[in-house]
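user: Here is a favour to ask of a fellow structure person. I have my own habits and do not want them to colour yours. Could you put it straight underneath, so I can go through it closely?

assistant:
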Amino acid sequence: MTTGYLERGALAGVVGGLAYGLFVALVANPFVAGLETFESGHGHAGEPAVSSLTTSLVSIGGGVLWGLLFGIVAFGIAYYFLEPVLPGDPVTRRLVLAGAGFLTVSGAPWLVLPPQPPGVEQSLASGARTAWYGGMMVAGAGVSVLAGVVYRRLAARRPAVRTAASLAPLCLLALPVVLTPANAVHGGVPAGLVVAFRWTVVFGQVVLWATLAGVHAWLADSTVQSAEAADFAVLND
């Protein structure tokens, strides 16, 4: 494996993680703080145990670490092996990989265990939730691979047909959703705020994976242009 793939994956991860950490610090954390105040009975929640600055710095640092992990694993290692079989142009290939990463890490698990705001109690035991989350990650990865296989098998078909057929395996994720044990939740947060919280979490993950894909594509394009410029300079010496 060339170090170039790992370096680009790591750099994309740092930038993507920084974008994600800033989103958490500037958007998600204030939202969560508001929900906690709401949970306390619309009153003052008292002095926070940790300052907002410290919380923001921890969120940004944590975001960078998550981005670095996903950047190296998905765009440093996985992309190295999957690049020849991913569909589309270079940008599309990275977006497809980012979509598969989002589906594996977050999208599929959230179908059975959606993000819950602070203060919400869940009836399903933590061990069972962990097992289901891990199982859905495996299911998300499997469906992503199956979608890629279908796309390649239909190489002779029209692009619209290939795309539609390759998305069909996503329907298989409905099966574990039906089989998941009931997980009743209890809390004082209104349903509208719960939905808003979930979409905030989803958007943060989309920001992370989209930034990873975009920065990785830009880094690869810059590397190609630098190599071409170096070759041109050698030929004209």
